[in-house]
Design goal:
single chain; mainly beta; 15-stranded antiparallel beta sheet; 15 strands; 54% strand
Length: 275
């Protein structure tokens, strides 16, 4: 059976809100986070109607440099716990470099899942109003494939989309509103659609209840039948902090719940009930 990591949809939190229509160069003001932010999540998988904790996720943003210029570096580490490790070990690492204005520069995803190891890499450049991408992919058989692509629109990877979306102003967004965007991996460029579902309160694993904006991520908008891949909740404040992600997989369902965090840039004004 072809395996699909339970962590992959979380990366798309990761694809969860590219609601910004821009033309290259693709810069956007950062209002939601600062270097030094660190977030932790618990991951669960549904197995025969029982929710089992299978691992954790650690997210960080740091000041860095890229090709001699000031940059932000974002890292996400997905790690299986000891119980899951004995059955199916996982170590997935995502790295993204952007300018301070959140313009993508480089992306890498290394996924070690069971006996499989794959790599996605993307290098960005900008010329003549176009986004140029050099892409590289390593299959689990160890075969490397190099491709190149370009777009008249802004194109983002999993992590950069997260950063951009957190700085978006959703004040005037209406329930049911649809948002289109482009996402790149090491081997392909795809179109996605996001739908705003309204507001709900959610109690995270830090025992606090948050007022959240809820979004549904659908598979390629060009297909005849749309399929929900993700449903996720972000705080209804200036941080737009992801506190819950529900994802549908070929072999079941999984969830990620916010556990704790430090270094948030703005006050957590979306807390409606403290622990």
């Amino acid at each position: 059976m072809k395996y699909r990591s339970i962590y992959y949809p979380l990366f798309a939190i990761v694809v969860f809100m590219q609601a910004i229509s821009m033309t290259a160069q693709c810069k956007y003001p950062n209002t939601a986070f600062s270097p030094g932010e660190s977030l932790n999540y618990d991951l669960y998988f549904n197995w025969k109607f029982i929710w089992v904790k299978v691992g954790s996720t650690h997210f960080t943003v740091k000041s860095s440099s890229y090709q001699g210029k000031q940059a932000l570096r974002t890292d996400i580490l997905f790690k299986s716990n000891k119980k899951c490790e004995s059955i199916f070990p996982m170590r997935d690492t995502l790295i993204s470099y952007t300018t301070p204005e959140l313009e993508p520069l480089y992306f890498r995803k290394g996924a070690f899942e069971g006996k499989r190891y794959t790599v996605d890499e993307v290098w960005y450049s900008y010329e003549g109003g176009k986004t140029l991408m050099k892409q590289r992919f390593r299959s689990h058989e160890g075969v490397w494939t190099d491709t190149q692509s370009s777009s008249d629109d802004c194109v983002n990877d999993m992590l950069n989309i997260l950063l951009l979306s957190r700085s978006k102003d959703y004040t005037n967004m209406k329930k049911g509103q649809r948002i289109n965007y482009k996402m790149v991996t090491g081997k392909r460029l795809s179109n996605q659609v996001l739908i705003y579902k309204g507001k709900e309160n959610f109690k995270a694993n830090d025992k606090q209840t948050y007022r959240c904006l809820v979004f549904s991520l659908l598979d390629d908008k060009e297909t005849k039948k749309e399929k929900e891949l993700l449903r996720f909740y972000i705080t209804d404040d200036k941080n737009h902090l992801p506190v819950r992600i529900d994802f549908n997989l070929k072999f079941g369902s999984a969830k990620a719940y916010f556990l704790n965090g430090t270094g948030m840039r703005n006050p957590m004004d979306a807390i409606v009930k403290k622990k």
